[in-house]
Design goal:
The chain contains ten helices and no strands. It is mainly α. The protein has a single domain, classed as Four Helix Bundle (Hemerythrin (Met), subunit A), CATH 1.20.120.1760.
């Protein structure tokens, strides 16, 4: 394998870049790889990474681009109708593509840092918090008129809070283990399997109705885009309100189930 200095060298081929930036431990991760990355983005990302490595941009700055793309994804939903939803759908995929490339740049240049991990978390937390907030604005009918629009904007903020709390549970596990002096969790599926039979069965059943996976930026933009298509045949504002009202209780149920699954798993046991 090519030796890398701290500044990195340019790859001579896409195959060489893949070998260094997409090792098996990255492609085979159980939880950290989103399905769109496995489906097609990891096939495309080396080409973007190739272009980025021709510049002096750092991995952390690539992550900064990912953050800005995520914010643009959310705010594009302020454009009414299908146009805004379609733009959000495309930008959501672009954010995930850049998210793949920032890690590849870091691995090629051997420039991993806690700052990069932190920025990655900022990008995903803020994007997945902003999308439901702006969905609340769409449901209220942008531009807003108060006080009659408070109900829908409040529902959007409530959905954002539940989604962020759900994401934070995983990070809370790592913080709890670190504070307890336990080893870092390996990214294996068996680590998350509940030890209690009833909880384990419920967790397996959730695979057939995976509503708990609806709250990533990719899934949210897909849902909102489909709703915008439905809105071509019905009142689009009513459709957005139905989506928001449906997502909120399911998010609360997902949060509760996630908490119970963590408490019943080996992750928080000594």
């Amino acid at each position: 394998m090519t030796s890398l200095d701290e500044h990195g060298t340019r790859p001579t081929s896409i195959a060489q870049l893949r070998a260094v930036s997409q090792p098996p431990e990255v492609r085979l991760r159980a939880n950290a790889e989103h399905w769109v990355a496995s489906l097609y983005l990891r096939d495309l990302s080396p080409y973007l990474t190739w272009l980025l490595l021709k510049t002096s941009i750092s991995a952390n700055r690539v992550t900064g681009l990912m953050i800005l793309t995520g914010w643009a994804t959310a705010f594009s939903l302020l454009i009414p109708g299908v146009a805004g939803a379609a733009l959000a759908l495309v930008l959501g995929q672009l954010q995930m593509l850049v998210d793949c490339s920032d890690g590849e740049v870091a691995r090629w240049r051997n420039s991993h840092s806690p700052a990069g991990v932190f920025l990655d978390k900022v990008g995903h937390y803020t994007t997945e918090g902003l999308i439901p907030v702006v969905l609340g604005f769409r449901a209220a009918g942008w531009p807003l008129e108060f006080p009659q629009d408070f109900a829908w904007t409040t529902a959007g903020f409530a959905l954002a809070l539940v989604i962020v709390l759900n994401k934070a549970l995983n990070d809370m596990v790592h913080v709890a283990r670190a504070n307890a002096g336990l080893d870092k969790l390996s990214d294996r599926k068996e680590e998350a399997v509940p030890s209690q039979r009833v909880v384990a069965r419920l967790r397996r059943a959730a695979r057939f109705v995976p509503f708990h996976r609806l709250y990533h930026s990719v899934e949210l933009t897909i849902i909102i885009f489909i709703a915008s298509i439905v809105g071509l045949f019905f009142d689009p504002q009513v459709v957005d309100r139905v989506v928001l009202v449906a997502l909120l209780p399911l998010a609360v149920l997902s949060l509760a189930g996630h908490f119970v699954a963590i408490m019943a798993s080996k992750r928080v046991r000594t």
